[in-house]
């Protein structure tokens, strides 16, 4: 089950479970679409994997399978990281 983390690891932007602007890697590292594209070039800075759009969990399933409330944030954001492409 996807964790559906609540924020971007780079800029700390809120990413509610219904947003289509959340990007994840295979380890569920989570970034907003702006950081994923403009800063990270579509590659996870943690594992080097591809960042893809996170699926939206249907609202009817959120009561039984809620999104995570645990925020994950890089201490320095994504400062110093550059898009590779």
TrEMBL record:
This protein's species is Phreatobacter stygius
Name the record gives this protein = DUF1272 domain-containing protein
A Pfam family of the record is DUF1272
Q: Write down the superkingdom of origin.
A: Bacteria
**InterPro entries, A to Z:** DUF1272
